[in-house]
Write a structure and sequence with these properties.
Blueprint lengths: L1 H11 L5 E5 L5 H9 L4 E4 L2 H18 L9 E4 L8 H4 L5 E5 L2 H14 L3 E5 L14 H12 L6 E7 L8 H21 L9 E3 L6 H6 L4 E4 L1 H4 L5
Parallel strand pairs: 1-2, 1-8, 2-3, 3-4, 4-5, 5-6, 6-7
Amino acid sequence: MIEKVIHRLKSELPATVKLVAVSKFHPFESIEEAYRAGQRIFAESRPQELASKVRALEARRIELDDPGYMSDIEWHFIGHLQTNKLKLVLPYVSLVQSVDSVRLLDAMDSWGRTSGCVVNVLLEPHVAAEDTKQGFEAEEVKSILQAASRGEYKNIRFKGIMGMATFTDDENVIRSDFASLLRIYEDSLSEFPSVSADFQELSIGMSDDYSIAVEYGSTMVRIGSMIFGLRKI
């Protein structure tokens, strides 16, 4: 089933849209199955679970006596990240999609400075109707990119915008939310040319609304339940 869904999604999605398989709550064996089907980008939302799966991969390499096994896998983090959990996430991921506060951004910049590396991030605006969703106001995104243009955040590479639409069956609301996220993304590109070379990702769209997100310029869709089914752990 996993292989069939991945092949179907990749045939449907435009070449400009990356498929991010959201493997949270699913065992490492499901990731291996998806990998064998050609999937390379996987997303986790809990620091401990991500670290556990990284360890599972290392154990599998030892078991197979193959240091290169799944060496081109790419981990993303998409959940709310607490500043005291950075060491469980940042050494392993190529992108943190869910940067939702200046406090977190500052902590990640400090971690990168101490570790001698640059952290790739997406900024997460809050446009959905639910009060529970984290994220920035549009003006806060602008303020952060202004700071980056002044030379602040030297250990952060701003790669674009990530967002979620309101959880609803009303397609008009979903479209409105995606339009708002696209507007923030496009305004960021036009207003801050010094960061625009790296600022190329608009991560919007999940299992229930990814086809609509593609209409609004998504470059990454985050698909979980459609690929892996209901959570298993």
